[in-house]
Write a structure and sequence with these properties.
Elements lengths: L9 H8 L2 E7 L5 E7 L1 E3 L2 E5 L2 H9 L2 E6 L8 E11 L2 E13 L3 H4 L7 E3 L4
Length: 123
């Protein structure tokens, strides 16, 4: 389950999750490209140094995903969807939605298929 959230809460979440995240783009052969990047928040966007492969991918397919792994055991991952563009020597991602996500434990759901446990950004 994904809960749409207001990306304006993202800067607060970056204080908890940190600046390093995985940038996921799609290559010409429709495979995923994952790059571990360091982002800074600037005027409502996330910016990072340019990655040649990611830059080539976003020229054709600008929709990207950013993923921050949990910063604590059994914690939430942060997943942000965005539109990416090339701005000089940087990639600029304008967030369109985001979610804090973790799998639910089987004990919490009472079922083998434990589903998930999502929370909107800023919770």
């Amino acid at each position: 389950m994904s809960i749409p959230v207001d990306p304006s809460k993202l800067e607060d979440e970056l204080n908890r999750f940190g600046q390093a995240a995985f940038l996921l783009t799609v290559s010409d052969d429709q495979t995923s490209h994952v790059a571990h990047m360091t982002f800074r928040f600037q005027e409502g966007a996330l910016c990072c140094s340019i990655s040649k492969t990611a830059a080539r991918n976003v020229e054709v397919r600008p929709k990207v995903v950013l993923l921050w792994p949990p910063y604590e055991n059994n914690g939430y991952s942060m997943i942000v969807d965005g539109e990416c563009s090339i701005q000089g020597e940087e990639l600029k991602v304008v967030p369109t939605s985001g979610v804090l996500h973790r799998p639910a434990t089987p004990e919490a759901s009472g079922e083998l298929d434990c589903g998930n446990d999502c929370a909107p950004l800023g919770s």
